[in-house]
Amino acid sequence: MCLLLGATGVGKTMLVKRLQTILPRWLCSRDGKGDLGDPPLTRPTVGTNLTDIVAQKKITIRELGGCMGPIWSSYYGNCHSLLFMVDASNPTQLSASCVQLLGLLSAEELAEASVLILFNKIDLPCYMTIEEMKSLIRLPDLIACAKQSITTVEVSARKGTGLSDVLRWLQDTHRTNG
Ligand SMILES: Nc1nc2c(ncn2[C@@H]2O[C@H](COP(=O)(O)OP(=O)(O)OP(=O)(O)O)[C@@H](O)[C@H]2O)c(=O)[nH]1
Ligand SMILES: [Mg+2]
């Protein structure tokens, strides 16, 4: 099981919809590029949303809506990997996201999980660069101190940028178990 978490509106549902769209061509050519068509409409996820990504093995991604934040922890069990999404176009949300991330990294049940932090919406202009945001939340220190293995990736779920890296990470992370 892979958990997909992050504040409301960062683009989690868009990500899973787009991953499903690019999966067939990624499996053929290891390339997620090409026209993805119009971005699908999304609504705020009230509750949870399960999506199966079937590559070499089936990986179930469980999105929890941002509004479910207070009860995210009841879903930590059996979580092999964690996708944590941040809206790279919205630095004002960053400190709240950082607090959420710290809570996740210190949770006993997630100590063994591999973590991928996604900076989404890189297609939008922003007054702060991703490097500046990373240093603002002291991400290098977090990565050095965390029990989990942490990777970061910059994506646009809307445009498809970086999504083949996400699929590769999922496949590598779930190769052995989970
Ligand atoms: N420009 C841009 N917009 C995006 C991107 N990803 C998502 N969005 C938009 O952001 C809004 C929220 O997207 P959702 O996928 O519903 O967000 P969510 O994280 O699932 O939100 P909750 O389910 O409420 O927690 C929608 O209007 C999307 O079209 C992106 O990469 N670029
Ligand atoms: Mg959603």
From TrEMBL:
Domain of life: Eukaryota
InterPro entries: P-loop_NTPase, Small_GTPase_ARF/SAR
Gene3D superfamilies: P-loop containing nucleotide triphosphate hydrolases
Keyword terms, alphabetized: GTP-binding, Nucleotide-binding
Pfam families xref list: Arf (PF00025)
PANTHER family on file: ADP-RIBOSYLATION FACTOR-LIKE PROTEIN 16 (PTHR46688)
Name of the protein described by the UniProt record: ADP-ribosylation factor-like 16
Provenance organism: Rangifer tarandus platyrhynchus (Svalbard reindeer)
